[in-house]
Amino acid sequence: MPSPIEKLQKFFKLEAERGYDNRAVVGGLDKIVPAWDAEAQTLNYPEALIQTVRSRLQNYPNLESEERSQALADLLTLLKEFQSEHPQLAANQAQPVTPRKPIPPARPKPARPVDSAPADDLLPPAPPASDPRQRPARPAPPKTEPVQGLDAPLTVISGIGTRYAQSLRSLGLETLNDLLYFFPRRYDDYSQLKPINRLEYGDELTVLGTIQSIIVRPIRGGQSQLTEAVITDGTGFLRVTWFNSPYIANKLKTGDQIVLSGKVDMYLGRKVMNNPDWESLEQEHLHTNRIVPVYPLTAQVTQKNLRRILHQTVTFWAPRLTDHLPASVREETRLPDLSTAIRNAHFPDSMDSLTAARRRLAFDEIFLLQLGVQRQKQSWQSLTAQVFEPPAGWVDEQIHRLPYELTHAQRKALAELENDLRSGRPMNRLLQGDVGSGKTVVAALAAAIVIQAGAQVAFMAPTSILAEQHYRSLSRLLAAEDGSNLLHPAEIALLVGDTSEAEKAAIRAGLAEGSIRLVIGTHALIEDPITFHRLQMAVIDEQHRFGVAQRAALRAKGENPHLLVMTATPIPRSLALTLYGDLDLAVMDEMPVGRLPIETHVLHPLERERAYHLIRSQIEQGRQAFVIYPLVEKGEREDDSKAAVEEHQRLQREVFPHLKLGLLHGRMRPEEKEQVMARFRDGDYHILVSTSVVEVGVDVPNATVMLIEGANRFGLAQLHQFRGRVGRGPDQSYCLLIPESENAVENERLVAMEQSNDGFVLAERDLEQRGPGDFLGSRQSGFMELKMASLTDVHLIEVAREQAQKLFALDPQLELPEHANLSRVFDRFWAATKGELS
Fold first, then answer.
1. Angle at CA 259, nearest 5°, toward 258 and 262?
2. If we measure between CA atoms, which residue out of 148, 86, 143 comes closest to residue 116?
3. Could you give the C-alpha distances from 221 to 217, 218, 244, 500, in angstroms and in order?
4. Nearest to residue 233, comparing CAs of 267, 263, 210, 216?
5. pLDDT, tens only, 529-576
6. 675-714: per-residue pLDDT in tens?
7. pTM surpassing 0.85?
8. What is the distance of C-alpha 472 from the center of its chain?
């Protein structure tokens, strides 16, 4: 008589010969489980072996052909290993077994050691049909330590072979932990049930019924097949179709009770459902009759199979998770525990439970982010720096020498910088102000305090033209040939890519010996040959253009120098608290006295000639103009969009034939862009036609018109930056916005631009409308990886920040025993998040 092992081997061989159609046994391989299970137990087979065979055969009908092949191959390997280790038992000779080692899992163990249980403990059996002999699940481990095994590879899961695991890897899924935090991209609410006679066109819901008939017929001349079924629930009939899915007719038969979820359509006056999800009424419903998660997919991965894998993983692991969030934090914030949140984020019982789950997981991300920011800030503040305390009245003297009055915002920001310089800790401050608010003069006065004490200051800008602009401004403010100012012109240097080698050598020598006390430059400042005699302050303009490594390299040129970073992009408070919480903030939200507000108007596309007329009249008065386009060149599908290259030619040929027009776009080499901007600044061009590369920083006081084509394509923050390129001189300036179509004239962003010149007001609106992308700059790579948190949720950010500050004050290094798990999660989060701290 063949043993249970030999029976399985026989069935598996026959199944392979049939092409894995699940008909080697009448009713399917899963039907042999009860009898095989009982026989194996009678012979005292190891429980681990019985569990593995049971779970994989019960799950077999749910697998695709390739997955079935892999599952049986794995089981055959397992059975052969068992036969070699227990030949007598495998040959049907019953006796007690004390195996020398646990039965190996059906998947290879990880190549590297992991803190995991044996593979057969990593996941439960797939959800079985009801079986009275089913053993209870193993008890969950005590929750005093983090759950073991979450770093195990996905191949420990039944039905996931090496090839399928490679497909999942393209979704970023490699471990069980990755699965738990792989959240749906949306949810389909099929929790609502209706009888068939009450269905309405457009309903997305669930129907319960009995199959009255089901057929497969050819369509399109036999090239495709259509499976048609008629479902009834006693109140009416519903026609259901599945395209190119003939296997459904093999799985369903007349009289079967099923659950359908989908959208109700109409065909020839009758209600139909096309390609709905379906499940048997008796089985647990994953795809119907509930709020159904919809996950991102990739090639070779189906929604149903991925959902099944997620359900299997979440069902087993969620209850076993250790909550890293301290109980006191959960109680104060009224957030659900982690197990509940993970379960309801994937398979929610209701929309309310889904909302609560997503809020908890979003809180976790912001909370961990804030802990990292607090730790970075503490690290910086623990350092010591040179104290700079100018003589009494010295700063006021420098202010009185200026040709204009400082605004209240400028004086307040300067006072904050003075406090930083006298604190004995390195300044680490972000100075943010609207375009034209006068940040440069505040930075210059702070630099002057350092320079008057005999130290050096470095000022770094992202482009040569901006560096030259700052060089002229700082020379005007701080240097004089007759010695009447703080510096002699020879003590200020400009170092950019175009600087000659002889000049570079002289500048390097001057910086090393200390004769050059203020240097303005681009990234050339951080190159290795450059050393400073006594660098005590670094100023970085348009800081979002620089990465952490570049800022750190400049800081490394001195010994804990004071750091001031500046941005002309107003940042909403919620983002500032999150992205720049490691920096002290100084905000300048007031424009200089006498600055004329820029007149902003939205024009219909048919009113374009009015804009051209204004440009001509301004140029006749000796002014200049910008014309901005959203594209460099017109693509095949860009029917309504104007592009800079083609429009530059048209404007020069047809509209402004007697004027000189320059062209600037992102595909030009850096030196070409610098040259074009310099020629426009120097008056060689009357009009500069450009893409968005002109957005930041360039100062052309003679430019009075900013015409933005395709304005509806830009965000508010970007539109406001464009507008800030004009209005820098004494003359009235204009910003004209022309959308791509008449329908876009009422665009919310364009209306907001007409209503307000305040960059901070516009930044808040832009964050609400478009999200945080435009504000992130060099920090974008990490913060865009947040899976649940929205950087527009000001309330949640402030709650998480408050809780993080409290916890950090109590245990900054997370060294208390009750914070051990939080410490591990924190380290994992910051290892995965590439968010940039200053």
1. 135
2. 148
3. 11, 7, 13, 75
4. 210
5. 889 999 999 999 875 556 566 777 888 888 889 999 888 777 777 677
6. 898 899 899 999 999 988 775 556 788 999 999 999 988 8
7. no
8. 39
